[in-house]
Amino acid sequence: MRIDIISAAPDLLESPFNHSIVKRAKEKGLAKIVIHDLRTFGLGNYKQIDDTQFGGGAGMVLMIEPISKCIEVLKAERVYDEIIYMTPDAKTLKQSTANTLSLQKNIIILTGHYKGVDQRVRDKYITKEISIGDYVLTGGELAAAVLVDSIVRLIPGVIGDETSALTDSFQDNLLSPPVYTRPSTYEGMKVPEVLLSGNFPKIDEWRSEKAYERTQQIRPDLLDENM
Ligand code: 6GU
After folding, report:
1. What is the DSSP secondary structure assignment for residue 66, as one 8-state letter?
2. Sign of dihedral through CA atoms 36, 105, 132, 85?
3. Does ligand 1 come within 6 angstroms of the Cβ of 67?
4. Domain with 217 in it: what CATH number?
5. How far is the CA of 134 from the centre of ligand 1 (A)?
6. Do 39 and 145 lie in a common domain?
7. End-to-end Cα distance, the chain
8. Is the minimum distance from the CB of 76 to ligand 1 under 6 angstroms?
9. pLDDT tens, 103-147?
10. The ligand 1 atom nearest the CA atom of 144
11. 48 and 78 share one domain
């Protein structure tokens, strides 16, 4: 899978993609992540990429021309399945979105900054808009890092333990059950007996029960989504 990210603050994206699972996916050739500095496509000697908004109001808006130039260059090289814009005024990222996107071949992610992008960019190019939650970040870069991580870990072969990604919280709209490791007793706190029993059908049943209980307590809204 190839992911092209267009950003006005590309430095913010370096670190998240050079660690852990995303790094491994790149090394194994399972994911190629290419970051494009929007400034490269800026207008005039000052490489301008943003301007004040028509109608007045605080904050700068990313202009359409630099973004258009960058997207057109990419589209001339390959076919893109999705062109995604990261913005707080969109539907929030769900596990199902990450699942679907992990099956794509080529995607572009555009990250906003300041007041966002000229609406015409969204009208002309964007096929999907994603927010990562109901709070405002300075820019879309950290949100893009979150999105890319959620996608890349699902690409077959990226996580060693094949079943691991599928048993995550949210894969079935349930939170994960509690997990334990050695020691079996710590300062009088005991690991639930059933987990030490070796009775795997019973263990599965216990885990399902706990997952349901935990979801009921912390995120009852997820249970409604199953209906
Ligand atoms: Cl995608 N961008 C920004 N700037 N803030 C956010 C967001 C995205 N998702 C949640 N907050």
Report:
1. H
2. positive
3. no
4. 1.10.1270.20
5. 8
6. yes
7. 33
8. no
9. 999 999 999 987 899 999 999 999 999 999 999 999 999 999 999
10. 1
11. yes
